[in-house]
Design a protein that fits this description.
homotetramer; 347 residues; alpha/beta; 13 strands; globular
């Protein structure tokens, strides 16, 4: 519909053709509702296999904000809060969904969207050693995203350190994987799905931005968080009547490595695009190797690109420069990337 | 997938083939997200036309519980509650979603799932004349569903009376139309979409149970309720990233009268099924002419039917009888209804 | 200040003179705040002794609604609700304080303000055996009051049965003792403080209505409910800066049996008043032997009494009769009761 | 009770003797409950006079956290938040009471505990100009305290600027006056109660820290905030049964200028103490002229003082220095200040 080529986000198109095909094939089948159908069961089983563990609870929700608030509210008592980087999605971009469930988001300074084990430890110790700690929200969960909102990723060492500090102090570690595929297939990534399932208490595998029409697969390893989780999905409005739509999508994504294959496609095209920006000498706002490119451009060049290309404006850097975001995705067409790189070279 | 023929609810299948076709056709188009795409705009415009008014705000959400809690929380301040029949969906079947937003559901006795203007007036007067009214939740909204959870419908006279009493006392009138198509096409219905848009302050047109994969179209006529509504959609997790999926579905449903045509199909088959039960002399739990049939059967007969057919068990009536629900929908196949009526005749 | 003699409630006066005396004596002493002073410690110790157990956590809050919402919110996760009689204070007279914390109050039919073990069991079984139980709020706590809002009391047998059924199904039993003194000193009571501490998981001893300026002492026996309770007191606004005011009051009330002595005074005067109503043949709305008398009077007689006496109007019974409440308290003067009984005799 | 002389806060003692006297005198009077008695009416009238306006709504609550959450929840819809300095009491010291009501506290950088009109304007503009503003909590109220948590005060010019920017953008301005007396009587203050009533939409006059046993008087000038306010007081647990206790206290405080007279006493002694610290050359953490002194001391000196004096430890400044707080209050005895200053001189 758009007359420009859009690079502004990773949810501009529908779903991967194989998903559409499966949805069509199964369309008139009859199944029970609310995620208790065989497709959800099969998808959950494939995800457990991909994570290398049989004891994981897997649930399917529709979208990211919904998933974040459901997981967090299921985990916390009323006096507890969730630590997250100040730039974290739940802190700045979900209209206070977590607070609307009654919990404070406890922002801590991050570096390129990431928080360190040291920061978490400091936050916990500062709470517990405060003379009037009962006057302060008790940290009980750590929320991270991987990739982060700035496209950066955690190394295995960093995630291991976070996991250790969380478990030392009784904090749940929750990883928002809305773009998980684009993190796990980045050239500089050393994490696996198994690592994440082992190191986190709960995380989710994003479908909306990685090939699905919609859908996020929540994976829970901590026993306490498994208890009664379906009540929370229903209460927060996330229990899809035709739950099989989620099952069918994740079943397809986790068949024949599709989830990772289409993620790698996005990464390859992002690298191509990155090369073009680099050749022109544009500096990055943040360096990363995932599907989001945060680059600083002269306003005149931006305006020139705007004629044919959509991007996401982030913020003004100085009088004549702006930081913007270009995204690739599973759906990005190579010819479109070529058109953009050519346009960049002409600037 | 199921080896039985399912009549237990109206969300056992996917979507109407015309919707699937449109989703496929548009799948790789690029649009902006969050419901700000041209498909949503077009669907909203068609709904405004169907309601005969240009001043309506139309928003698309994913599911019913989500829609109810979003509308109600957007309408009420913290000390206010929503009146509803004791059997109302928000009171008994949404895991306390409204309470989780901080508002009390004020159950009032209903008749076959409906509440009357008199009941609403009595509730309001009893509140306001109470010496310690500030110790009691203030009623501010009336929630009804049409058809109700028991398949009954409001007449134009009843809805007009409710609307009058609500507006006399400053209460918002909210109609949950999860099955609206099946109400408006029932043989004994005298309400139109225009009536509903005129008499209610906010209502929604259900897609999930009437031909869509998912989706509910919220229609707001009251100015106060229009304000900032999108913030609430986002906060409650109902803002679909690929919002166009909702626009495309409702655009299709409101093209060439499809929504009503497929609703009439369900009603015709329900009438056929009803005739079979009546011929056998089974009494109704509740009488209605919509797509849900609440009938009381001897347990032995139920067991016989169970071999080949799925239905929804409601409750035990006496030692040897149970109340159950059979549903038809836009997707019900005539041959399946014939199979069921034959089985009924053989009982 | 009032020119009538007030019998409408049990909080028309200040505090017992011994309490005022202690507050004066200690007024300019310096102590730390927030309930961590020696007076609170001493009062808690005396309450533990009165309950016959050393392992009880005791906390002091300011008022009843605050205490109810704090205890309930500390006990429940978001998807859980609290069972209570439909007439229960939290269900009808606290402006939705519990719902404002996100929890549904699950009203069950009571008898004279009380709920039975059978009702609780039925509610639990009906929840757990429901096919779609996750769509329904999970009962997790039972709230009762003793005396109830209608002045009735639980027998040891009834409370034992409730306690058993609660513990069988993992429900917390919470007893609101806003008027506990008037229940434990009623002529037909067979419960002791020890019984209550043993049978309930948490309860409170009301001070506001029994001799104190204000204050409720929460007593917790269940280990899970003890955890982090002070955070909840603070979050709900119940942590009094000069917490010692609560400690001093309860220390005084639990010295030399004062709490029970002044309760017995109220009961004796209530019995005297009851005798007068009975002599005139007025029927009770509800029979009880505590400090609240619910009696049905001809409107003409009520009007006559209104000239000199305050009472609480409850509801119209028929065209010429009304149900009203007369209360005695620790502060009621015998001469005032005599004046009222004389006026009754003259009707 | 304490064996040290306490300077750690301004709520270590009971109430001003005149208040105790009035509570004793009126103790056995009968009045109606919940703040509808003549004492509350009289106190409200005196506060209106002190504010120079007849159209103000005045309500009495018990404590500060309770007051903050009640005012804020009464003012905001679910998608709205409250801007406040990052060091603001509601942001860091009330166990997430505002979030527990569903609202995000939007911390903005402050200077010595204060926020400027410019910061507020920037926050509003940044919200409204954001492309996806509906994904972000909408600022709707500005919370300030005067004096702030750091003892600093707003000048008339600063408060006027804040008021203007708030009203330009439709934000409510709320001033937490827990220590208002100590601000209005500071040597460098140029604000009056009339100014505050004119410039703010709602504020409160703190009693707990300025002469009362407990109690905060909320003063509302904005019509929208007046509506239904008593429902919120009740729902949040702040409606004292024996509400007259609050009326009597504020009636006394606002008779013969008592509130300001006792505030001046605290200020005079704080100045005396300040002089001692200055003579020793100790630097301030924050400079102010109210009743809280934030000073940086060598740890050895602190330890020496600790033997006889209580203070509030704030934080470690470097390896051998700490920031601490000393408070005076209406109750501080001159001889105790002399003892402390002598001890300081001896360091």
């Amino acid at each position: 519909m758009s007359d420009k080529i859009l690079f502004q986000c990773d949810y501009n198109e529908g779903a991967h053709p194989k998903i559409m095909e499966r949805l069509l094939e199964t369309n008139m089948e009859q199944t029970v509702g609310y995620g208790e159908d065989p497709y959800c069961a099969r998808a959950a089983e494939k995800i457990r296999q991909a994570c290398g563990r049989e004891d994981l609870a897997v649930h399917f929700l529709v979208g990211g904000t919904q998933t974040n608030m459901t997981v967090i509210d299921a985990a916390l008592r009323s006096h507890q809060g969730v630590l997250c980087a100040e730039t974290g999605h739940i802190n700045v971009h979900e209209t206070g969904a977590v607070e609307a469930c009654g919990h404070k988001v406890l922002g801590v300074p991050g570096t390129d969207g990431k928080i360190t084990a040291d920061r978490v430890e400091a936050a916990w110790l500062s709470h517990i050693h405060n003379d009037s700690f009962e006057h302060i929200v008790q940290p009980k969960m750590v929320y991270i995203s991987n990739p982060t909102e700035l496209g950066t990723i955690y190394s295995r060492e960093e995630l291991t350190a976070l996991s250790k500090v969380c478990h030392r102090y009784g904090l749940y570690l929750f990883l928002d994987g809305a773009r998980l595929g684009y993190g796990l297939t980045a050239p500089d990534n050393d994490l696996t799905l198994e690592d994440i399932a082992r190191l986190c208490d709960v995380f989710y595998i994003g479908g909306t931005k990685v090939g699905a029409l919609f859908g996020e697969a929540v994976v829970i390893s901590h026993e306490e968080l498994k208890r009664d989780f379906r009540y929370f999905i229903k209460q927060k409005g996330g229990m899809l009547a035709k739950g099989r739509l989620l099952g069918i999508q994740f079943d397809t994504l986790f068949t024949d490595d599709l989830y990772f294959e289409i993620s790698r496609h996005a990464i390859r095209l992002a690298e191509k695009l990155r090369a073009a920006f680099e050749r022109k000498g544009y500096p990055y706002l943040v360096e990363n190797r995932t599907n989001q490119i945060f680059v600083i451009l002269p306003d005149a060049d931006l305006e020139a690109l705007s004629e044919d290309f959509g991007y996401c404006y982030d913020h003004r850097v100085d009088e004549s420069h702006s930081a913007v975001r270009f995204c690739t995705s599973w759906a990005t067409r190579e010819e479109n990337v070529d058109a953009l790189t050519n346009a960049i070279f002409k600037l």
